[in-house]
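Annual report, structural modelling task.

Input specification for the zinc ion complex:
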Amino acid sequence: MTSNWLIGMIALFVATLLPSTIRADEWHYPTPAPNGVINEPERWGGQCETGRRQSPIDLTYQAAVKGDFAPFLFSNYMNPIRNAQLTNTGHSIQIDNTDPSVTLYGGGLPGKFVLDQMHFHWGSEHTIAGVRYGLELHMVHHDSRYNSLTEAAAVKNAVAVIGVLFHVSNQDNTHMDVVLETSQDIRDAAGKSAPLKGKLSPHNLLPKNRTSYFRYEGSLTTPTCAESVIWTVFTESLPVSLDQVELFKTIHDPSGHELVINFRSLQPLNARALVYHTDMDYSGSGAIPKLSLTLIVAAIAALLAK
Ligand SMILES: *[C@@H]1O[C@H](CO)[C@@H](O)[C@H](O)[C@H]1NC(C)=O
Ligand SMILES: [Zn+2]
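The model returned the following structure:
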């Protein structure tokens, strides 16, 4: 009788404990060791650990195959985000977009994609040939055939994320100022939002060169790590100053600590194709014969003219 009661109480205790331990927003990034190296795995469970097309990955030219896609068409990215709010999500700072006319098309994507939100990772998530960048911006979109990002996240390739890398430079990125000034109002509390203290056009956070990029099929880089994402990471990075990068680290996580890093560890490529797209098409054998032919024609023309 007593032992049954005890088992019952333990079961009840465990049952009340479980829902809170598996709450999706209770995950966190591992804390770097004093020397800055991250030794612990994330231990996020579920698909984050069992998936075969996870993100981020190391992007290397050696592992990539050549791609040739139609140009990207960014519609209304020049317009400042309407009623822009900056939110401390506890894992990043995020700007939501509610205007469905801000869309992305082309670039080999299977349809039209609507911009949902932009957020930052300090310490880039993707690396290029093993090199990590100071910052990575994610522009998250959903396929317009679905009603929301949540709905699209359950469907293979119905989410398109654009990754923009930022290298550390001795000059501030002035387009980032409005984000960082506003971030100081929300840094102390996860869940807090504030209106953006100025205008921000998504276009100003895109590199000029939008023809050179890596493309692969992957996942969200935060739990649930849903494997629904078509990734595009541009190879041209934008500048950001060290002071600006340091400001991101003053954002507080849900337990009130400074969020020193918020990038996920690199995931294996496995059997996936990594595609590299560029408009530079004259690197092969074709260019030189064409040039010498032009020279020969010019030489003959010059001789004939004499
Ligand atoms: C984009 O970058 C690639 C790789 O660096 C380069 O070959 C290409 O010419 C660039 N295109 C434009 C339009 O600047
Ligand atoms: Zn992200």
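Residues 209, 211-212, 278-280 surround 2-acetamido-2-deoxy-beta-D-glucopyranose (ligand 1) (CB under 6 Å).
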